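Lab notebook: predicted structure, single chain.

Context: the supervisor wants predicted structures on file for every construct in the current expression panel, including those that have not yet been purified. This is the next one on the list. No modifications to the sequence; it matches the entry in the shared construct table.
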Amino acid sequence: PSSAAAQPSRSRDPKRKDVRHILLGEADAVHLDILSMHVLGYAEATAWSRPQPTGKPNEVVRVLIKTQLVE
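Prediction complete. Output recorded below exactly as produced.
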């Protein structure tokens, strides 16, 4: 199975480009950043991937893919 980060753009419109946001850090700090971006209206908290362990104690990675219109 391929990861979301390895998949090509989900958009068929050539003017729409996918951008991946990656948060890496301690689980509670990553969660707070996601909530902050939600409060600012940047991204829904539910749009982020589930936390994935990195192999370091209490460290996780979460990914958000946003589609942007590029003129």
